[in-house]
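Q: Hi! First time doing this. I have a protein sequence and I read that you can turn it into a structure. Is that right? Here it is:
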Amino acid sequence: VTPIRIELTASWSAIANVLELIEGMDTPSRMTEFKLDRDLEPDVEIARVSIEIEVLHRIEPVEDAR
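A: Yes, that's right. Below is the predicted 3D structure, encoded as structure tokens:
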């Protein structure tokens, strides 16, 4: 398992794009943390997000080189 942390301050659409990219990854992963902070002003379309995912890896057996 490889943990990956993404810290992002961006528009709502950019954050949605990142989430779609994570969801569409070929390598299996799971989201272990998601924190979203937004401005209290309704007109502000920028938010700060913290995402942590764990990317799962399968180790391929190594053939004996004897």
